[in-house]
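Fill in residues.
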């Protein structure tokens, strides 16, 4: 019973995010010849993540792990545009509703 509770608890724990610097250090350990299973076990990281990070690192170096500031700005602009589109749609619906009411009230 205790083992089942422990198992449930360990599967519910959120994975801690690794910084670009930490990912690079782990990948460098792999490139220096350390076994991927050993790096995985010592740092509580999946083998799949390590393999993905190694591929990314080899393609772009440490910079490949970092978020790019322009990506954040673009995301902010996209959110603002989405809000503006919603506002415009609501405005059009309101206008259509008011025009329909004006049209039906003039008949009486």
């Amino acid at each position: 019973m205790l083992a089942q509770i422990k198992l449930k608890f360990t599967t519910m724990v959120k994975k801690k995010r690794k910084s670009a610097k930490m990912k690079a250090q782990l990948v460098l350990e792999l490139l220096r010849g350390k076994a991927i299973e050993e790096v995985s076990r010592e740092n509580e990281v999946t083998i799949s993540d390590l393999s993905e990070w190694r591929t990314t690192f080899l393609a772009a170096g440490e910079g490949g792990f970092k978020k790019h500031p322009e990506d954040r700005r673009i995301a902010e602009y996209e959110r603002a545009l989405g809000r503006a589109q919603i506002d415009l749609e609501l405005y059009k619906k309101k206008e259509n509703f008011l025009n329909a009411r004006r049209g039906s009230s003039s008949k009486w």
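The chain has five helices and no strands.
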